[in-house]
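ESCALATION

Customer reports they have been waiting on this structure for their group meeting. Please prioritize. Original submission:
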Amino acid sequence: MSTKLQDGDLLFPLGQDSSLDPSGLQPGQYSRGMNVVNRGGILQCRPGYRCLLMLPDGRLQGVGVLAPKKGAEILVFAVAGLLYTSHAPFSTLEYLPGALFSETAEQLFFKQVEQTVTTNPDGSVTFTNPRNLLVIQDGGLTPPVVYDGTTAQHQRGPGLIPLGGPMEWVGDRLWVANGPNLYASDIGSPTTFTESQYVAGAVDFFIFPQPITAITKTLTTDFAQLLVFSRTTTQVIQASIRDRAAWATTPNFQKELFPNIGCVSPRSVAAHYGLLWWFSEHGLVSLDAASTGYVSSSLPYQDSQMQESKGRLSQQLGGVACASYENYFLCSVPYADIFNRHTWCLDNTVNPGEAQRKPAWNSFWTGTRPVEWLVREFENVTRALYLSVDYDGKNRLWEAFMPDRLDNNCPITWWAESRAYHFNSPGKFKD
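Update from on-call: job pushed to the front of the queue and completed.
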């Protein structure tokens, strides 16, 4: 009488791992999946996408948001060097006059800042009613634009915002990167860069060995610092020190953090579950600033389980775009394309009942080609919006995580490939 052999999986709490042959996976893992989410170890179709707005034709250069002190948030889109605005529910579009950027710029950079003082010609400051502004740059090709919710104006002339690309708001200053140079605005006055002229011994700007590709603030709970990336290095600036005169005498005010790990895409920098994530030349990395204390000189890559997709990426990685929404981390990558055809999905709560929750890769998502993610609160509701250059060549604004699991009311194709089953017999297995 033959012996009955059994092998199989009811749940998949360990998630996807395409870096190994299916015969080498553990029980509870699966080889790969498309448009799959994995909650409680149960595989199911991902949430749906919903098209909100058709955008003009041309090079899709980015999106920013201005949250005024009073009133609802305003989306600002950049297409072929022109700016457009949209108010909730983001179903209509209006041309924004007064600003003209280079239509050849690969992307535009947006940063909301807060102005609390006005710098006078003699270097003194006058306190003003706080207001939020949106600063927009195209990488140094055109003078920057400041949008106040009503008008958009280019800033030209000495002492104003310098031309640049990546920007960050930290320490009540606007930090602007242009090539290897990094500039800091006057404190509380993001549109003026004159403070160094009136402070004895003050630092005017910083020079880095390589062009700056991205800047962001750390996620520390005490005083946020500034991380400055090139393609191959990461440095930290103690931007929380407000006294500009003290910068030159502060030990390690500018310090190299990771000499061999940088960032290739400013849109890939995203915070998720207390970690800062970004895409380096060789893959996705994350930094826990609270636990490392900036003493480690290396970071492990976090995307080996997505090897089946990662192994076919375009060499042009400057458009990788990442985002965090609830328990999910998303990373849109140029799989076999110059556009981001695959969006990798990592879930931090595959097993929500476990005390030590382990993140697990779910699958890659398809259907659109995200250019930039915008996840934030709109009228007190967190929404996951993104721009996409779709397969028909049209530019659209989409919203992800629709609970109906339909893309614009159309069914979503999804599948998963299991591990190889050995039936408890070494050398014998069946897919």
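Sent to customer with the following note: The helical segments are 289-292, 307-310.
Escalation resolved.
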